[in-house]
């Protein structure tokens, strides 16, 4: 079998072989140097096959693909069913799953036919993720292996055969009252203080806050236009897919005014060190948790501030439809079950009716 590497007249590395029966000389398109020559010498067959497949449009046999290769293809083929930022998130999760090492080999490098229920169990046991995270991550492994089953590559999808790990209790939601909100804002400083205060009195999601631009704030009408969010560095429409207008309460305006001094004439309200937008709301989330730990307050999240704002609006008797509108909720079911804490009722009001 011919297996030759040489430089052509233009100094480009060329691979010469008859691996597939007929002798072909294939250009790599890369200028020759000693490191590349060594690389192609070591990986001759793999690189020659790639060049051959590209030039002669050879379609890969899907029965010979690894979990990583087949999964990448399936996720790409189904990408039209997801928003751009969701697709990026799914690809990252699947990549992390494929990079998990078991028995000296990466999970993603296993051939589809070799994956058994035991391998799923090993991943669940040793991946180091919480049970709820494992449940969400294995959805994508299951989807890829189900597609392989539908393509008759594997006989059974091993994922449904494996029991999910026991769920641990979900972190309880915090609902901060007026005094607690005052305390938290009181100990915060700088941009974080303004971020927390705006979250407390607008109910904006963390991803919406970091996507907020100065031209989204109408100082004449006293409202904020919320139509975008940023997740993993990608700007997208809001979770509900709709634009909403949030009124600016006095406390929110105070935070906006202070932040204006902090960020100056830059495009975004909340800025990173380089002056542009923050990559992800996790930056503020971590800073918020550190603040709570430092002052020995109960651990919570920025989303808890959104829930607290919702509860305060109900506590002070604002109309439900109006609350749903500015919170970006479609109906009161989610709002009532997940965004409302304990409401205090003044029982003396009805007692004042004279008979």
* Average pLDDT reading: 88
Count of helical stretches: 15
Question: What is the CATH class of the largest domain?
Answer: Mainly Alpha
Low-pLDDT regions: none
Number of domains: 3
The CATH topology of the largest domain turns out to be: hpI Integrase, Chain A
- The radius of gyration computed from the alpha-carbon positions, rounded to a whole number of angstroms, is 28 Å
What gap, in angstroms, lies between the N and C termini? Answer: 107 Å
Biggest sheet, spatial arrangement of strands: 1-2-3
Assembly form of the protein: single chain
By CATH, the architecture of the largest domain is named Orthogonal Bundle
* Percent range for β-strand residues: 5-15%
* Number of separate strands: 10
Helix-strand category: mainly alpha
The coarse silhouette is elongated
Largest beta sheet, briefly?
Answer: 3 strands, antiparallel
Brief summary of the model shown:
The chain is mostly helical. The chain has 15 helices and ten strands.
Describe the protein in words.
The structure is a single chain. This protein is 46% helix and 12% strand. The chain has 355 residues and is mainly alpha-helical. It has three domains: 3-52, no CATH class; 64-161, DNA polymerase, domain 1 (Orthogonal Bundle), CATH 1.10.150; 178-338, hpI Integrase, Chain A (Orthogonal Bundle). It has a three-stranded antiparallel β-sheet. The chain starts with a strand and ends with a helix. 23% of the residues are buried. The mean pLDDT is 88.
């Amino acid at each position: 079998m011919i297996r030759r590497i040489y430089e052509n007249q233009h100094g480009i590395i060329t691979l010469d072989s008859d691996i597939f029966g007929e002798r072909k000389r294939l250009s790599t398109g890369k200028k020759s140097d000693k490191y590349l020559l060594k690389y192609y010498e070591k990986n001759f067959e793999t690189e020659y096959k790639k060049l051959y497949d590209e030039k002669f449009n050879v379609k890969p046999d899907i029965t010979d693909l690894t979990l990583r290769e087949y999964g990448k293809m399936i996720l790409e083929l189904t990408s039209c069913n997801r928003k751009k930022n969701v697709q990026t998130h799914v690809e990252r999760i699947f990549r992390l799953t494929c990079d998990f090492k078991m028995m000296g080999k990466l999970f993603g490098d296993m051939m589809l036919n070799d994956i058994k229920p035991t391998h799923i169990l090993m991943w669940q046991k040793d991946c180091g993720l919480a049970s709820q995270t494992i449940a969400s991550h294995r959805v994508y492994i299951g989807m890829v292996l189900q597609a392989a089953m539908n393509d008759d590559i594997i006989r059974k999808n091993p994922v449904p055969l494996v029991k999910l790990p026991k769920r641990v209790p979900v972190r309880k939601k915090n609902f901060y009252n007026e005094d607690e909100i005052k305390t938290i804002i009181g100990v915060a400083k700088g941009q974080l203080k303004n971020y927390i205060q705006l979250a407390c009195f607008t109910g904006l999601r963390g991803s919406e806050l970091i996507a907020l631009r100065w031209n989204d704030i109408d100082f004449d009408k006293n409202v904020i236009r919320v139509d975008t969010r940023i997740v993993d560095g990608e700007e997208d429409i809001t979770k509900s897919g709709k634009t909403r207008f949030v009124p600016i309460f006095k406390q929110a305006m105070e935070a906006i005014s202070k932040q204006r001094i902090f960020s100056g004439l830059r495009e975004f309200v909340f800025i990173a060190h380089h002056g542009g937008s923050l990559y992800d709301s996790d930056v503020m989330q971590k800073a918020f948790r550190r603040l709570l730990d430092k002052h020995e307050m109960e651990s919570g999240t920025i989303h808890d501030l959104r829930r607290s704002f919702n509860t305060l609006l109900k506590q002070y008797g604002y109309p439900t439809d109006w609350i749903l509108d500015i919170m970006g909720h479609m109906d009161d079911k989610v709002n009532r079950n997940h965004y409302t804490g304990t409401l205090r009722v003044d029982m003396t009001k009805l007692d004042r009716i004279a008979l």
